Amino acid sequence: MQDINEIQLQMHAPCTELIGFVQTIWFATNTSNKQTLSFKILNDCASGFIFNFGDEINLKMKGVNQVSQKEYLLLGPTTDMLTLTFKNEINCIGIRFFPETGHHFLNVEMSQLANKIIFRYKSHFETGSVLYKDIKQLLDKKADKKDVIHIIEAYLLHVLKKSKVKIHHKLNNILKAIQNDQGINISKISHDFKISHRDLQRLFKRYIGVAPNVYIRINKIRNLKTIIANNRFDSLTQLSLDNGYFDQAHFIRDFKGFMQETPKKYYKIKNPN
């Protein structure tokens, strides 16, 4: 894997009106690149868009390779590792929703988009091609990033205003509970929020696109990979026990299932010295 600085990644928080709906608007740029640069990304089950104005990007998810060149695409919710491989000129702009908010902009049951990469997505994002052209015009004029961000925000606010999807406060509270309690399980959620297992499944299927038990597991792994990368643990055995695993073997198997690396190898990658 390559150094993230080689794609000059910049992430920008959206305007106040979108702060609860959009995680980030990001830019990846290296117009003089002549290399092949690969990056692995552990998804958080959020959907988003990539607007590619550069050369080839190879996207690998669920063992399937797809190639993008000078077009826009939708990344549906997934728990799988996404590998982005850039070849030659890099000039991408991305929109990343929260796991529970892509539904507001796409107005479709999110499970229908799960584990999918859809090029020139038009079914529920009809004017995506218009936004792509508008951004390209600004880029051709060497416009400032703030102007590009402004036109993206204006578009998203327009879509949000027309959306018939309402904020689901119970779901938001459930997601906060999952984030704050690494040992939480389906039974505890069902009890604390007075929701049946079946209704919980339906809620996640509609708004997020993945099963709640899988969402809980990936949230735990994302938290653990941060702890490991920052060397904030005494031993892997204790780390596994502190996070609800029966033993270290279960922890290693779960971690490798999502990260494609063992915890020990991931630690060495992030802490080479």
From TrEMBL:
InterPro entries: AraC_XylS_family_regulators, DUF6597, HTH_AraC. Gene3D superfamilies: Homeodomain-like. SMART domains: HTH_ARAC. The keyword Transcription regulation applies. GO terms for molecular function: DNA-binding transcription factor activity; sequence-specific DNA binding. Keywords: DNA-binding, Transcription, Transcription regulation. It comes from the Bacteria. Pfam families: DUF6597 (PF20240), HTH_18 (PF12833). Residues 169-269 form the HTH araC/xylS-type domain. This is AraC-type DNA-binding protein.
